[in-house]
Amino acid sequence: MKLKDFLLAAAFSFSLSPMTALAIASNIEDGEVGDGSSAAETESMGDKDVVGVAIAHGDFSTLVLAIKAAGLEQVLRQNGPYTVLAPANAAFAAIPREQFDALREDHDALAAMLKHHVIKGEVSAKQLAERDSIEMMDGTTLPVLAKDGVISVDGIKILATDIEAKNGVLHAIEQVLIPEAVGRQLEKIMNEEESAAQGN
Questions:
Q1: Which of 14, 15, 21, 188 counts the most CB atoms within 10 A of its CB?
Q2: Which of 111, 89, 83, 85 is nearest to 173 (CA)?
Q3: φ, ψ dihedrals at 194, nearest 5°
């Protein structure tokens, strides 16, 4: 395992806030975690897979940490194609700390949540806007709405569209998509921890 990969996994696995994990990842300067520079200044985004594009983009650093921690990196580096609804760093930072901690400790839930952001097949913004719903990698179907030039998936707006990769495309979204099953699991865990704390 590369030192960079170890540090990325450690940043996400230990008791760190999303922003702290992001800061650690952003300080790794081996060329795989971007500093926010555009693809034109480094390598064409189209020459990278969806994970490589997320790394090079710079604003998806926390998403990259999550993908690596959940063990999905190699899956998303395959031929695909894949469409990734990619939450930016600010979207992860908005997750309540208690939910983030519970999610961080449950890799199955983390993987399920990330699959809730992936579509099997390459779906452009234009194609997405023509649909009423879309099936995600986790088997769930989410509603799609296109109104006034803005596309929303399950009520969450797409902020940037058609970020091309050699094995698919990414669309940046404003919030993290939490599948119902994972949401119920996180709520249960938090309730149990709260009850245990009150018992002490």
A1: 21
A2: 85
A3: -65, -40
Three-class DSSP category at 193? helix
CA atoms of 74 and 51, how far apart (whole Å)? 9
Burial 117-154 (b: 16+ CB within 10 A, else e): bbbeebbebeebbeeeebebbbebebebebeeeebbbb
3-class secondary structure for 140-155? CEEEEEEECCEEEECC
User: Of 119, 148, 120, 143, which Cα lies nearest the Cα of 132?
Assistant: 143
Helices 97-105 and 180-199 pack at an angle, to 10 degrees, of 100
pLDDT in tens, 175-190: 999 888 777 777 776 6
pLDDT tens, 124-168?
A: 999 999 999 999 999 999 999 999 999 999 999 999 999 999 999
d(CA 160, CA 83): 13
Specify whether the CB–CB gap between 89 and 159 falls below 8 A: no
State which H helix or E strand residue 156 sits in: strand 156-165
Cβ atoms within 10 Å, residue 2: 10
